[in-house]
Structures are given as structure tokens and as C-alpha cells.
Write a structure and sequence with these properties.
The complex is a heterodimer.
Chain A: H1 2-56, E1 59-60, E2 68-69, H2 73-79, H3 82-113, H4 120-128, H5 135-145, H6 152-159, H7 174-183, H8 187-198, H9 202-210, H10 215-242, H11 247-252, H12 264-274, H13 278-306
Antiparallel strand pairs in A: 1-2
Helix pairs in contact in A: 3-7, 3-8, 3-10, 3-12, 4-8, 8-10, 10-13, 12-13
Chain B: H1 2-7, H2 13-47, H3 70-78, H4 81-112, H5 118-128, H6 134-146, H7 154-157, H8 165-176, H9 180-188, H10 193-204, H11 206-222, H12 225-230, H13 239-245, H14 255-275, H15 277-289
Classes of the chains: A mainly alpha, B mainly alpha.
Chain lengths: 315, 291
């Protein structure tokens, strides 16, 4: 039987192979044709600008005169630039606080939504809806909510006997106002976690219960490992997004008071489009890129230690 | 199943009471938290109807005393709202069409066609999703400036036509779930790749296309940084930039007007959300879990 097949296919081999080769070449050509929007976009809007940005970072370029090669001077300038340090510190602090806090809050809400509850869809909508509202509208609304004297946040706090701080007007509290505002947008992550939680097999919990495991054990030994891919994903995207905070800062405080909310991208924007320091702005952009890359790689590399993939490591 | 039937007889009255208490607590916490989440939205809407000066009144009042529906009309008088709205609709719709078209073509190639370097290029695509926008922001601006396209819509509407990575990824994941035998059968019947894309894959992918379309609608409608960089003439502003500048227009720094403008700005997104909630949630889940 096998021999017959073999002979048959061998007999057909020469013409078929020729046809196949041209066919394959044609398919490759068609493939690249379909791919061409992205290939062109990759070259024109990504790879090209990235190389240009790297080159520009070694120049002084104020748009009106041609760029002047100044070597690593832009990078050296950062070491003595207080505002650079300030923006890096503001952004890092914000990231270190708002990303873990946001993920914990989103997970907490998702755990609640994953219980036996009435009207789960309604609650899910309630938590998700704020996250689709854009940064501009959120910033405009919260500018009034955070108002020291007339805002409703401090008004509600006064019912609890707390006299609220001058949120956006004091260097000590301004960044916390941004953290609070970011917590309002956890809905996207909540939906991701809820879906992940619903994918955890119930048998695991039932088996653990039979063994007498209590709630915290079940949470840390079953829930967290089972949803760790979602935690990894939301952490990485959270960090990337947080390092690029711009709109809220531009609208709410424009970096103030006393540069306490001078987010990195805001400082970069000011260099590029207010002061036309295109060279320095490019150097800042590359440093931001390296920071984000480092964080992403750190998470991906260490993920083998704490991320559990169902059905083996290499997925 | 077996454990359930085994356990049921052991459910004592005390256990039932404990479960009820637990359920009550969970609902109470959810309602409290949910109220905190709804409050800013509700406050925005009711504040849009307050009388002038309500924003600097102490103590602040949550509900307006009289409903000033005229605030909405005043916004139209204070800023060229219709122009901004039209600009936003124009830019957003062109961008969404461009993104759907280019992303679906590229995703089709990655999901259904075979060509050398496919896996490498796909990894490259995934890697580009990590690249922050600021890295390319400055040179792209210089490029458009050299082309004399600053203060036109081209810097905003051209990039979507060149395959945004995130949408490609999402569509590719969906296209992979469609049975490959459909392509084979069509090929046997002599259909070209473009015809397979057009007449088999696209019609079967309506939910995924809707998801991507809504996501990109929201992205472009809400985009603030790009129009801020490129548009200098106020008659060209999008709504996102326009409502920000409302406070610098004479008489615009008023709680009620800013809230009314914000409500009108986010309304299309909210309406779209309620129409397509199913797709949206599905889309987030796909990107979040299979990512």
C-alpha cells in the first residue's frame, strides 16, 4: 500500500515540483504585497524615525538652522540637568505607586465580581465605563473635582472629618492626585482579570477545599499562579503607559506646582515644541526608550520565575 | 459534581447563615465601590446643568437648583463647536477606515499566507508594540515639516493607513481561528488571495473588525498629543484639543460650560460603548489573555 503511494507520488514529482516552486514564489510575492502597508509604515514611521532620532540626539537642532553635530553633549547635559532628574523621579515614583496599586485594585474588584453576585454585567459596566473616557475629558473634570476649596472631593472628605489637601496646588499632594485619578481608570484591567479568573478551573479550588485550604492559601497558591500571565501582561502595558503619561499632566498642572508633576514626556514635549531643542528632545526620547525596554525585559526575563503557563513553559 | 452532592447534606444552618452574610458584605462593598466609580460621571452630567458661578460656590452643591439646559447651547456660542466636531468626525472616520483596511490586509498575510520570513516579521511586529511613541515623535514631526504638511490633517490620517501593530495583532489572532479548509477550497475553485480575503475572511470576521474599529475609533477620537503637536490653526482643531482650549476662550472658564462640552465630547464614545459592549469586552479579553 505504502509502496504504491510512493511510486505514484514519485511518478508525479517532476512536473508537480516545478509548478509548486513557481506557485510558492508567487505566494511569497502575494504575501509581501498584502504585508506592504505595514512594511512601508515600519520603514517610514518607525525604523526611519528611530534612526533619525538616534542621529539627532547627537546634534543641536533648533529647526531654523541645520543640525550641528555635538557628539554626546546632549547626553552629558542630562547629568547636570535638574529638570531631567526631576522628571525622571516624578515619572518613576508615579509608575512605582500607580501601576502596582492599579493592578491590585483591578484584581480586587475582579475578585469581587467573580463571586456569586446579582447583576454582574451592570457592575462590570460601572467599573469599565470610566476607562473608556479619554484623558482630556477626565483631566478637565478632575480639575474641578480636585479643587481645594470648591471641589466635591474635599467636600465629601469633610463629611468624614478630613480636611482635604490642596490637591493640585501643593507639591506634596499633586502627584497623589494623579494616582487617584489613574485608579478611576482600572476598568480595562478589571475586565482582563475577570476573564482570567473565570478561566481558572473550579476543580482546583474544590480539591484544595477537601484538603482544608483556607481562602488566603487558595488565593496565593491557586488564583495568583493561574492568572499570572494576565498580571504580567497588565504590568508591562501599565509601565509602558505610565512612563508616557502626558495629557493629564499637560492639562491639569502643566508640570507644576514647583515641577512636582513634571512628567518625563511633558518635559520632552516642552523641549521639542516649546523650546525647539530637537536634539536634546531626541536624546531624552532615547533614554525613555531604553528605560522602558529595560523594564519590559526585566519583567519578561523574570517571568519564568513567577508566571505560570498552563501546559508548559514555551507557549 | 460528585463533591457537590457529597457536600450538600453537610450544609448546616450555620453555614447557610455565613454564606448569606458573605453575600451581603460582597454586595455592599460592590455597591459602595461602584458608587465611587459612578460619582464623577454623574457629577459631570449634573454639573453641566448648573447655573454660572456654581463652580466657585461654597459649600459645593451636587445637584443644580435649576436645570440650565441652555448651557449646552452656550458652548456652541463660546467655541466653534460644530467646526471642531466636524474636524474630529472627519479625521476619526478616515483614520478608522484606513486602520481597518491596512490592518486587515496585513493580518491576512500573517494568518493565512505563507512567505519566507513570516515568523521573523511577526516577531518584529510584536516588538514594535513596545516602542514608545515619543521615540519617533520628533523626527516624524521634522519629516512632516519638511514636507510642508504641518497644520494639515495628513500627519494625523496617514499613519493609520500603514498598519498599526496592535490592530494587526488582534485581527491576526482572529483570522487564525477561521478554518483553513475554506481557503483551500476557494483556491481549488481558482479564487485569488485577494478574493479569499475579500469574500471569505472579511465577511466571517465582522465581530473582530467591529472590535478593532471601536478601539481605533476611541483612540483617534480621544487623541490629544498628535493634534496638539501638528495643528496650530484653531479652525482646524479636533474636539479633544478644542474643549481643552475652551477655558482660554472668553467666558469659557466656567464649570457648567466645561462639563457640558465634556459631556458632548465623550457622548459618542459612550454611545458606541453601549452599542458594542459585547465586542469590546471580548476584544480586551483576547488581547489580554492571548497576548
Amino acid at each position: 500500500m505504502a509502496g504504491v503511494q510512493n511510486i505514484q507520488s514519485r511518478a508525479e514529482l517532476p512536473p508537480r515540483r516545478l509548478f509548486r516552486l513557481t506557485n510558492r514564489r508567487r505566494e511569497a510575492l502575494v504575501g509581501y504585497l498584502f504585508l506592504s502597508p505595514w512594511l512601508i509604515g515600519f520603514l517610514v514611521f518607525l525604523a526611519g524615525p528611530m534612526v533619525a532620532s538616534l542621529l539627532l540626539s547627537f546634534t543641536q537642532y533648533k529647526l531654523i538652522t541645520p543640525p550641528i553635530w555635538i557628539g554626546t553633549a546632549n547626553y552629558q547635559r542630562m547629568f547636570s540637568d535638574d529638570l531631567f532628574y526631576r522628571s525622571l523621579r516624578v515619572t518613576s515614583m508615579y509608575t512605582l505607586i500607580s501601576v502596582p496599586l492599579g493592578i491590585a485594585a483591578a484584581l480586587g474588584v475582579a475578585l469581587l465580581l467573580n463571586q456569586k453576585i446579582f447583576a454582574r454585567g451592570v457592575f462590570r459596566t460601572v467599573f469599565y465605563l470610566p476607562s473608556i473616557i479619554s484623558g482630556v475629558a477626565v483631566a478637565i473634570v478632575f480639575a474641578w473635582i480636585f479643587n481645594f476649596k470648591f471641589g466635591i472631593l474635599n467636600y465629601f472628605l469633610s463629611f468624614l472629618g478630613i480636611s482635604g489637601p490642596n490637591w493640585l496646588g501643593s507639591p506634596r499632594w499633586a502627584l497623589w492626585a494623579f494616582v487617584l485619578m489613574s485608579l478611576w481608570g482600572i476598568g480595562g484591567n478589571t475586565v482582563i482579570f475577570l476573564a482570567a479568573l473565570q478561566g481558572v478551573p473550579q476543580e482546583l479550588y474544590e480539591a484544595a477545599e477537601i484538603d482544608g485550604a483556607r481562602a488566603p492559601v487558595k488565593f496565593w497558591r491557586i488564583t495568583v499562579p493561574m492568572i499570572s500571565p494576565a498580571i504580567l501582561f497588565t504590568s508591562i502595558l501599565g509601565i509602558i503607559g505610565s512612563f508616557q503619561t502626558f495629557t493629564q499632566a499637560y492639562i491639569l498642572t502643566n508640570g507644576g506646582p514647583a515641577n512636582s508633576t513634571l512628567f518625563y514626556l511633558l518635559y520632552l514635549y516642552k523641549n521639542a515644541f516649546n523650546w525647539f531643542e530637537m536634539g536634546y528632545a531626541s536624546a531624552l526620547a532615547w533614554v525613555l526608550f531604553l528605560i522602558i525596554m529595560a523594564w519590559t525585559l526585566l519583567f519578561l526575563r523574570t517571568s519564568a520565575l513567577w508566571v505560570h503557563y498552563e501546559g508548559g513553559r514555551d507557549r | 459534581m460528585a463533591t457537590q452532592t457529597l457536600r450538600r447534606p453537610r450544609r448546616s444552618g450555620r453555614r447557610v447563615a455565613r454564606d448569606t452574610l458573605r453575600s451581603v458584605v460582597i454586595h455592599a462593598v460592590l455597591i459602595a465601590l461602584g458608587s465611587v466609580f459612578v460619582l464623577p460621571l454623574l457629577w459631570t452630567v449634573v454639573s453641566s446643568l448648573k447655573e454660572p458661578g456654581a463652580g466657585i460656590k461654597f459649600p459645593p452643591q451636587f445637584f443644580p437648583q435649576t436645570f440650565m439646559w441652555g448651557n449646552y447651547r452656550r458652548v456652541f456660542e463660546l467655541i466653534p463647536f460644530v467646526t471642531f466636531f466636524r474636524n474630529s468626525v472627519l479625521i476619526t472616520s478616515i483614520s478608522v477606515v484606513g486602520e481597518l483596511f491596512s490592518a486587515s490586509l496585513v493580518a491576512f498575510a500573517f494568518a493565512r499566507l505563507r512567505f519566507p520570513g513570516r515568523n521573523f516579521l511577526f516577531l518584529l511586529l510584536l516588538a514594535t508594540m513596545m516602542i514608545p511613541y515619543p521615540v519617533t515623535m520628533v523626527p516624524t514631526f521634522i519629516m512632516f515639516k519638511q514636507l510642508n504638511l504641518v497644520n494639515t490633517y495628513f500627519p494625523l490620517i496617514l499613519p493609520p493607513f500603514f498598519g498599526p501593530a496592535f490592530s494587526i495583532f488582534l485581527l491576526r489572532q482572529f483570522f487564525l481561528t477561521i478554518n483553513m479548509e475554506l481557503d483551500e477550497a476557494a483556491k481549488v475553485d481558482g479564487a485569488s488571495e485577494f478574493r479569499i480575503y475579500r469574500q471569505i475572511i472579511l465577511p466571517l470576521s465582522k465581530p473582530a473588525l467591529a472590535t478593532v474599529g471601536i478601539f481605533s475609533f476611541m483612540t483617534y477620537w480621544n487623541d490629544f498629543l498628535t493634534p496638539l503637536i501638528y495643528l496650530s490653526e484653531s479652525s482646524k482643531y479636533t474636539l479633544a484639543v478644542g474643549i481643552f482650549y475652551l477655558r482660554s476662550f472668553r467666558g469659557g472658564n466656567e464649570l457648567a460650560f466645561q462639563m457640558a462640552a465634556s459631556v458632548m465630547f465623550v457622548a459618542p464614545c459612550i454611545i458606541m460603548f453601549f452599542i458594542a459592549q459585547r465586542f469590546l469586552v471580548q476584544g480586551i479579553v483576547t488581547t489580554g489573555l492571548k497576548g
